[in-house]
Design a protein that fits this description.
This protein is α+β, with helices and mostly antiparallel strands. It folds into two domains: 108-194, PDZ domain (Pdz3 Domain), CATH 2.30.42; 198-405, 2-enoyl-CoA Hydratase, Chain A, domain 1. Helices cover 27% and strands 27% of the residues. The strands form four sheets. Strands 1, 4, 5, 6, 7, 8 and 9 form a seven-stranded antiparallel beta sheet that branches. A six-stranded mixed beta sheet has the order 11-12-13-16-17-20, sandwiched between helices. A hairpin with a 5-residue loop joins strand 18 (329-335) and strand 19 (341-350). Helix 7 (219-231) packs parallel to helix 8 and helix 8 (250-260) runs parallel beside helix 9.
């Protein structure tokens, strides 16, 4: 079974196009969450934590393999505490992972530069990024990464595999690659990789295409530059590609939405106490009236769903593709004293029509699937072609409606 939670390894790159990156939507304008006041344990709560300290003392005094690293115990306790919340978006990052995530969010990473996904437990290449060490080494879509420096990657999560592959700039990682049933090893030297989050071009038939890969710290400026160049060509319509976009900063997505939406609601943030905060667009956008199609898929998550949901609810454009990931919660980003960090859920968000997409996703207006990847066969981007046809006024078949009619 194929997972559409692809990733830009940090060792392979730091941006998780798998959904672990989607938490970045939680970059609330009021984060980090020192807005939440420090609390003191009540007598009852203090008693509840007594067994924790008892176990700690037992480990330090009775466990046979001494000495025991206090840092390891502390990180284990933190991970266990957050895991007990049963929220995949509330999690702890080690100091190394914290640095990597922040670098990735800023668009500069240390790694080899390849986008991957998990398929049947295999870490599988979606695409090497142009101009990166992975691209120069000849990695291809469909390659399976079996080992990193002799360590098996099969059945690992994307994050676990990334921790093995990333490393200091200038050092090499030996990857065992499986391709067409045969295996070989390639040594790839890690480098600093700058990843633009926005690119654009004018397609045939005078249509503008904008690809938005994530919502990082530079995305708003990058988009404004791209829009300025594309709109100067006076296109007849625009395609906004949010496929495999895992999300990003809340402030960033509101700014991005402002480029496409007239004045009005972008999203509603709802806190545990029922208080709501509304985020709005202005009338200052550069692409508020151009006919618009938005491409989404199962990897479109978090901030991507905020943008696509606002465009859909506001009747600003049409969504084409597949049902999105479905992440409707908001996390804040708190740095810890050990250099690590915590992402913790503190609110949920709703579309302008107050739809909560969590674990459901956004439904496209026109459902179009992509063909399966086949080695040696030219890839046909059926979703992009459907967007082009729609803007040109050609008939586009909704595959879900068509299937239900048969």
């Amino acid at each position: 079974m194929k997972s559409h939670l692809s990733a830009l390894f940090i060792g392979i790159a730091a941006l998780l196009v798998g959904f672990n990156a989607g938490y970045l939507l939680g970059q609330s304008p009021i984060a980090p969450f020192n807005v939440f006041p420090a609390t003191f344990l009540s007598q009852e709560d203090s008693e509840a934590f007594e067994p924790l300290w008892e176990v700690h003392d037992l480990v330090q005094t009775r466990y046979f393999d001494q000495p025991v690293d206090e840092n390891i115990l502390a990180e284990g306790a933190i991970n266990g505490m957050l895991a007990a919340l049963d929220d995949p978006h509330t999690r702890y990052l080690s100091p190394q992972d914290e640095i990597a995530e922040r670098e990735g969010f800023a668009g500069e990473i240390q790694g080899i530069g390849v986008e991957v996904t998990t398929e049947d437990g295999n870490i599988t290449v979606v695409s090497p990024i142009d101009g990166t060490p992975a691209h120069a080494a000849g990695l291809r879509p469909g390659d399976i990464l079996r080992q990193a420096d002799g360590v098996e990657l099969t059945d690992m999560s994307v994050m676990e595999a990334a921790q093995l592959i990333r490393g200091p700039v200038g050092t090499a990682v030996a990857l065992l690659i499986e391709r067409d049933g045969e295996t070989f090893t390639v040594d790839i030297t890690r480098a600093v990789i700058e990843i633009d989050s926005v690119r654009g071009e004018i397609l045939e038939d005078d249509l503008a295409y904008v690809r938005l890969s994530h919502f990082g710290t530079r995305t708003t400026e990058e988009l404004q530059e791209v829009l300025s160049e594309l709109l100067a060509e006076e296109p007849a319509g625009m395609i906004l590609d949010l496929r495999r976009n895992p999300g990003g900063g809340l402030g960033t997505v509101v700014d991005i939405a402002d480029e496409f939406l007239p004045e009005g609601t972008v999203l509603i943030q709802e806190f545990a106490n029922g208080v709501e905060r509304e985020y709005n667009a202005t009338n200052k956008g550069n692409a508020e009236e151009l006919p618009l199609v938005v491409l989404i898929d199962e990897g479109s998550a978090s901030a991507s769903e905020v943008l696509a949901g606002a465009i859909q609810d506001r009747k600003r454009g049409v969504l084409i593709g597949q049902t999105s990931f479905g992440k409707g919660t908001v996390q804040t980003w708190q740095e810890l004293s050990n250099g690590g960090g915590v992402r913790i859920t503190f609110a949920r968000w709703l579309t302008p029509d107050e739809l909560w997409v969590h674990e459901e996703g956004l439904q496209p207006d026109i459902a179009v699937q992509l063909p399966e990847f086949e080695e040696g066969v030219e890839f046909n981007d059926t979703q992009l072609q459907a967007a082009i046809d729609y803007l040109l006024g050609n008939q586009v078949i909704d595959e879900e409606s068509s299937a239900s009619d048969t």
